[in-house]
Amino acid sequence: MATTSCDVAIVGAGLGGCFLALLLGRRGQRVVVIEQGPSIPSAGADFLKPPGLRVLARHGLADFVGRHGLRRDLIRYYHDGDPIQECRFPDGGFLIRPYQELVELIYTCCAMEGVEFCFDASIDDITMGEDRVEELALSNGQRLRAGVVIGADGTKSAVRRALAIEQRTMPYERLLMRVATVPLTASIAQLNRLYFSSEGWLAYFYPINAEQARVFVGLPPEDDKEIFQDGIPALLDELKKFVTDSSDAFDSLQPAAWQRIKVSSLRVEAYHKGNAALLGSAAFACHPMTGMGMSYTLHDAEILADVICAAGGDDELLDRLLSARYEPRREAHRALIDYGDALAATFRDRDAYLAAFRADLHIYGDAAAPAAWAAPR
Ligand SMILES: Cc1cc2nc3c(=O)[nH]c(=O)nc-3n(C[C@H](O)[C@H](O)[C@H](O)COP(=O)(O)OP(=O)(O)OC[C@H]3O[C@@H](n4cnc5c(N)ncnc54)[C@H](O)[C@@H]3O)c2cc1C
């Protein structure tokens, strides 16, 4: 098969890859997105927080994406059954929209900008020159030469491997996560409730649309076999110990299909090498309790789009701009990962959790809060 060329090749059609493709396509870049799956991926993310909504607003997408999503402005936290704090989100709150739906909306916008998508095509080989990616060999036989290559290909990134960038993955070993989609109940429709127990359990109840809700359960790994593999009745006995204001959901939990989710943090030593850069979960992963991964990824894509366009095909300038404007994002990501680690390490202990909880990071991440905002407690 012939070798084709483009300005930017993006590996991975998740939120980061699709959003960057859209921004670049709008600015006249020839973009090819390579996705190993048959369609846009699904993932556990449901919440888009204020910083991410503001990125979308800057690009005229906030109304389009928010139109059929749910808006929420309050999360109530409980410890051993008692409410311990509320987190109130000002300025329209946050958006609940299942990940695949959100990314599909951005994907449909890409089509209008001439972005080319290759589904069912993964990376077979990456030819490296001196500190730069020369060519990508795809599993469908195609060969692709690109001025810039973006690894938006998730935590196991093939691009990161080819660049020989070191990474450190830390599984949250003390907290095994399960999720189920269940019918919406009155208590879940009322507000988002997140329960913690001093025995190392958590349970999070929230709606995803007018009929359905999501329930996340986190538990010590040693409890998982008994609860989820030898029959579900023990689940309710455990939840009844610390879930107080969501008991109307209990009946729907038993027949639900409980999907197991692996959660790890990921830190990498550099975000670019020559003409290639990492984006989204290929670059960093934090505990989902922060609810911020997508917001940071959207902002990172904005920076990458600016840098790529400013470099205008000049490799040396691209390298310099990535060093100056993109690499510093590692510092913001590090703070977010540390924050997620602190939440995961303390939630069993009420006082330690409250001391670790940072409303500013939780609501605004590293973006500046509006001046009128006062920290909720
Ligand atoms: C349980 C859970 C809950 C979360 N909840 C939230 C939340 O509520 N709010 C929030 O902001 N963030 C949340 N996050 C984080 C959020 O999911 C990530 O920040 C976001 O998905 C990053 O998007 P991405 O584009 O990097 O990658 P991904 O969505 O991981 O997409 C990577 C894509 O690359 C493709 N790919 C991989 N390898 C190859 C290859 N070799 N060739 C071609 N394609 C390839 C994959 O198929 C996939 O489509 C959560 C994360 C988890 C684990």
UniProtKB/TrEMBL annotation:
Residues 6-320 form the FAD-binding domain. The keyword Magnesium does not apply. The keyword Oxidoreductase applies. It holds the Pfam family FAD_binding_3. Gene3D superfamilies: D-Amino Acid Oxidase, subunit A, domain 2, FAD/NAD(P)-binding domain. Coiled coil: none annotated. One of its GO terms (molecular function) is FAD binding. One of its GO terms (biological process) is 3-(3-hydroxy)phenylpropionate catabolic process. This is NAD(P)-binding protein.
